[in-house]
Design a protein that fits this description.
four-stranded antiparallel beta sheet, alpha+beta, single chain
Length: 202
């Protein structure tokens, strides 16, 4: 149990460091930045129930040495906090998921994550989540956070820290529930608007 608490604390510290510049100056020269985060409830082809879909739109400014117009090894993580009368403790449930693109071309790129229909029904979800934040890495290096990468209610350092603490502590209980697009029935739903994902053996 002690080892688990230490692990959660380490994850929390890493998440907070990734957002350390969130309330400072925005780096206009950043090669990748979160442009918007949108949520919708969508039904897969042949399905009978809605899944929650999170679409993270990135603004990519390709600066790859030797390959101008491209950025390689872009990893995106979505931290999600949902509020529901069915969720148990404090009415909140937390999720986290990651996906990595082998390369992104300059312009707009979209990463999508999903909560299955059974989870939507179980927690009677509707509308936007209570809170969210997005983490970005390029070739393993964390990028500074930005205001567009967090929900509006995480507008102070204290609120963001409290949220990331809960994600680090509680999201592991739901590991593998919030999933990237390629692990869902929506795999080919956006054939012209899906990154080249890296899919490692797990």
């Amino acid at each position: 149990m002690v080892r688990g608490r230490h692990s959660a604390t380490l994850v929390s510290i890493l998440l907070i460091v990734a957002h350390a510049d969130l309330f400072g100056q925005v780096d206009d020269a950043a090669p990748v930045e979160v442009r918007s985060v949108r949520f919708a409830y969508v039904r897969p082809m042949g399905g009978s129930s809605n899944w929650m879909e999170a679409t993270i739109e990135l603004d990519v400014r390709g600066t790859q040495e030797g390959h101008p117009g491209f950025v390689d090894a872009v990893r995106v993580a979505l931290n999600l906090g949902l509020q529901s009368t069915m969720a148990g403790e404090n009415g909140f449930v937390f999720y986290r998921s990651e996906a990595e693109a082998s390369t992104l071309e300059s312009g707009a790129a979209r990463f999508r994550f999903y909560l299955p229909a059974a989870i939507v029904r179980r927690y009677q979800l509707s509308g936007d989540p209570f809170a969210f934040s997005v983490d970005l890495w390029i070739e393993g290096k964390a990028l500074p956070g930005s205001r567009t990468a967090v929900s509006t209610n995480l507008n102070t350092v204290e609120a963001l820290r409290s949220f990331l603490d809960r994600v680090a502590r509680d999201a592991i209980r739901n590991d593998g529930v919030l999933v990237p697009q390629y692990d869902t029935p929506f795999l080919i739903e956006y054939a012209r608007d899906t990154p080249a994902f890296v899919r490692r053996n797990r």
